[in-house]
Design brief:
eight-stranded mixed sheet, 8 strands, 29% strand, 5 helices, alpha+beta
């Protein structure tokens, strides 16, 4: 038996070359679960506040106490994305301001036995947490690529030694997505 699922493309805004993921998710998942899936799929660590934007409406968990937002715990993804080519925005870490474009590319049928959520494809590693947004990330990449840079040793110690901007491991992501809470550390 087949079930209908959403094929989404998630693209981190403002970074070139692009950092993106193509995933399959159930249309009726809660925004809370969708947040967890984004965190795992992109490689974030769920260390900051987040919200979803759909036009002029914003959604975040009530306990975040973000002004003028609806409680994301009360909404499902298919209330925000209904038709192919619909888009929403996901913002993570209000200090660094990481914005993700989310596009409903297709509604597809998959076998009931297929693991959902599932990452189909993607490119590049997500920036390290707390690197300072787009400008900070670009600066970080410049420093770790230049051993002569005056901040090279300090930056490598902070996290540059382990960071590969081109790294993307679909098998690792799908293994995490098959776990409880979709492999996302949940801070409540």
């Amino acid at each position: 038996m087949a079930k209908k699922v959403y094929q989404l493309k998630i693209t981190l805004k403002g970074i070139s070359p692009a950092i993106w993921r193509r995933i399959l998710v159930k249309p009726d998942i809660s925004l809370v679960d969708f947040h967890r899936i984004i965190q795992t799929t992109m490689g974030w660590t769920n260390s900051h506040l987040h919200l979803f934007k759909n036009g002029h409406e914003e959604y975040s968990p009530a306990e975040f106490e973000v002004e003028d937002t609806k409680n994301s715990r009360a909404f499902k993804l298919n209330k925000l994305l209904k038709h192919v080519n619909d888009r929403i925005l996901y913002e993570y870490d209000f200090g660094d301001g990481w914005e993700h474009n989310i596009l409903l590319e297709k509604i597809v049928e998959v076998d009931d036995k297929e693991q959902i959520p599932k990452c189909l494809k993607g490119k590049r590693n997500c920036p390290p947490e707390d690197c300072g947004g787009i400008w900070g990330y670009e600066n970080f990449l410049q420093i770790i690529s230049d051993p002569q840079h005056e901040e090279y040793e300090e930056t490598m110690e902070w996290g540059g030694e382990e960071f590969d901007p081109e790294y993307f491991n679909i098998e690792e992501i799908n293994k995490l997505l098959s776990e409880k809470d979709y492999g996302c550390i949940w801070l409540e």
